[in-house]
Amino acid sequence: MTAWEPKNDLHRYLQAARDALLWKLDGLSEYEIRCPLTPTGTNLLGLVKHLAGVEAGYFGETFGRPFGEPLPWIADDAEDNADMWATADESRDDIAGLYRRVWQHADTTIAALALDATGRVRWWPDERSEVTLHQILVHVIAETNRHAGHADIVRELIDGEAGLRDGNLNLPSGDQKWWEDYRNRLEQTLIPVGFLSTN
């Protein structure tokens, strides 16, 4: 029996969220992974690009271990939301490959430092810019899972595919008819309380 290792647990949750996000790209065309599907432009490849920058910053610069590749979309003078979409010359392989290289860099930082190791988040307010690796792991896990949730919804809007991660959908095993009936039943619950017109 092994001793409880908090850092290993945190790292495992981070990796599960990373894998889930990349899994949402599987089987889709270049158009589908780039297509903005919300009023704010949320798209699958942009979410991956954004999180590559997130990890490069939080596990790199924050702890004096800068990521070795330029990421111009996170520079101080970058245009707003430049990290939330892929340009025409940035392919799926480019962005996914970058994300994996950032993981390796982040994982080296995570392995090298104790949970109570301190760093500084330059882009946070001064009163809370001093952080520990533990705080940053929790922060990045939360952010990665938040964006993986966005990816869940965007993917479902594209082709109806849904689920937590490869090998564990974490959904009832109903077929398309079951899901249609379920959704219709939910809509019917709105009628008695006046949210839907019966006309």
Tally of contiguous helical segments: 6
Q: How much strand?
A: under 5%
Care to count the β-strands? Answer: 2
Low-confidence stretches: none
The shape is globular
- Sequence of secondary-structure elements: HHHHEEHH
Roughly what percent helix?
40-55%
- How confident is the prediction overall: mean pLDDT? 92
Structural class based on helices, strands and sheet pairing: mainly alpha
Question: What's the alpha carbon Rg, rounded to whole Å?
Answer: 20 Å
Strand order of the largest sheet: 1-2
Largest sheet: 2 strands, antiparallel
Span between termini: 63 Å
Q: Could you explain the architecture of this structure?
A:
This protein is mainly alpha-helical and 199 residues long. It is built from 6 helices and 2 strands. The protein has a two-stranded antiparallel sheet. The protein starts with 5 loop residues before the first helix and ends in an 11-residue tail after the last helix.
Structure, briefly:
With 199 residues, the chain is mostly helical. It is built from 6 helices and 2 strands.
Give the arrangement of secondary structure elements.
Layout: H1 6-23, H2 30-34, H3 44-58, H4 92-112, E1 118-120, E2 130-132, H5 133-159, H6 176-188
Antiparallel strand pairs: 1-2
Helix pairs in contact: 1-5, 3-4, 3-5
Question: Characteristics of this structure?
Answer:
single chain; 199 residues; mainly alpha; two-stranded antiparallel ribbon; 2 strands; globular
